Amino acid sequence: MRISSGLLVAAAVVGLQLPASVSAADEVLVWHDLLLDTYRLMGGCPCPLSRVGGMTSGAIFDAVNSIDGSYQPYLTSVPASPTASKEAAVAQAAHDVLVELFPSLQAEYDAQLIASLGAIVDGPEKTEGIQVGATVAAEMIAARQDDGWNNYQSYQYGNAPGEWRPTWPDFLPPCNSHWGTVTPWGIPSGEMFRPSPPPTLDDPIYTADFIETKALGKVNSVERNSDQYTNAWFWANDRDGSYKPVGHMIDITRIISQQYELSMVENARLFALASIAMADAAICAWDAKYLTDLDFWRPIQGIRLADQDGNPNTIKDGSWVPLGIGSPAFPAYISGHACFAASCASVIRNYFGTDDIAFTCTTDDPRLLPGVTTQSYNSLTEAVTANGRSRVFLGVHWQNDCDRGIEVGTQVGDYIFANYMQPAPSSVDPFETKFASTLSVSRIAPNPSRHSATVELVLPVDGRLDLGIYDPSGRRVYGFDPSERQAGSVSLEWNLVDMSRRQRVPAGVYFVKGQLVPTSGAAPVGPSEAQARLVVLP
């Protein structure tokens, strides 16, 4: 089903696929799965989809965090007791945002809400969680109501060599030409990471890109091999009915989060950071596409009109057709696909402290070779590079579009991770108020770790130190032997084993917490900062 570029309009309800089982599910994953089904159903250009993801994931995070309080809020923090149901808060927040954006799908969202809340025991905790989720969702909706997503503008086409214009075969009008002016989610403006202009038509970079795309991106290319063909379609997800490039990266985020066995709270943070980074990546990419001096043409235009570009090294092919047949209805520079992928990968890389994350992912695009359903990558960079190259093999981009898209997306992801949803300052309760000098973890290194990690602490007084390693659910997985320690710096080494001292703990996120009982016999000092965080790599 094809709809207008506005996206947030009523659509015929075809039916969303609800998860088969909810009772033991992580509600963050449940509602993000439903978000992907929404993308598949609604279709359209990727920019509005990134906005939907930012609103949904951001509200989910603020709802969970209002109760948990481990991190600084993204938009808001609603007063809540720590016993309120986080699951109920997630479900209500996601439901209310999605219903606001897609009222025609309310029946499907209502059905999931009933299933999600039905798995939670009735009581004041559930009731409070529902209230928290509803309040957070309302604040998110209000905050983005006038962000400019529907401030459509007329677009003046250029007709000079190098300038983009609607392309064969359907000659669609420009999609979301105003998106670079949408209110950003975290970056100061869409111009913040604006790339340098695309190469001139006589630049050797353009010449090399022209020759490569002309050869490898042609519909019936004899130079493109089967791996390149597979790569082209694996990352495409351009057609309505797929989860689009934004949804592809959300799905990859889910795959990696499950490999690391993240808790619901950690998932809420990771998905929010990734989604908000991609929402800002859309603004940056579309700023570069439409709001700079040259809205650069697609390969089908450059190759068919090469006799007009003034470059003797580019040879015209007036009948050239890309493998993708049609080309996206917006300028080529920079690649939105590459920018989305790089921004999300940057968040994941920062979150786990490493690029070397191996994973296997799937695709929604149906145009692959028979039997090809997955691709495996050894690192985030490898996957992002494959994503960028796919646009060349599909014949819809020049390589420079993709390279600059990766650069911009990486900068966006780095900025969002460094500035949003950071660990909250340690809360001060009456216990800590009475004892001003509290135990603190000053450093963990290396972090992340594959083999062992050293925990460094500063003890305010002499005393008996009891320090443990906890998983995100609060379960103690390892304990250092309690011992008498003198005030000052202390270093303890953990070789990543569990309480048995023999079995290695699974890869994932862990927290260092402890208490110090002063030798004077006074009350314990602590607990330590709950967000002394360690990532254990596979």
Q: What is the strand content?
A: 5-15%
Mean pLDDT: 89
What's the total number of strands?
A: 10
Report how far apart the termini are.
Answer: 42 Å
* CATH architecture assignment name of the largest domain: Orthogonal Bundle
How many independent structural domains? Answer: 3
Shape: globular
CA radius of gyration is 26 Å
Number of helices: 14
What's the helical proportion of residues?
A: 40-55%
Uncertain runs: 1-15, 17-24, 427-437
Compact description:
By secondary structure, this protein is an alpha+beta fold. It is 40% helix and 11% strand. The protein folds into three domains: 118 residues, Up-down Bundle (Vanadium-containing Chloroperoxidase, domain 1); 212 residues, Orthogonal Bundle (Vanadium-containing Chloroperoxidase, domain 2); 107 residues, Sandwich (Immunoglobulin-like).
Helices, strands, pairings?
Blueprint: H1 27-42, H2 46-68, H3 86-101, H4 106-118, H5 124-144, H6 204-216, H7 226-234, H8 244-259, H9 264-290, H10 299-304, H11 336-352, E1 359-362, E2 374-377, H12 380-393, H13 399-419, H14 430-434, E3 440-445, E4 453-459, E5 463-470, E6 476-479, E7 483-485, E8 488-494, E9 508-518, E10 532-536
Antiparallel strand pairs: 1-2, 3-4, 4-8, 5-6, 5-7, 5-9, 9-10
Helix pairs in contact: 1-2, 1-3, 1-8, 2-3, 2-5, 2-8, 2-9, 3-4, 3-5, 7-12, 8-9, 8-11, 9-11, 9-13, 11-12, 11-13, 12-13
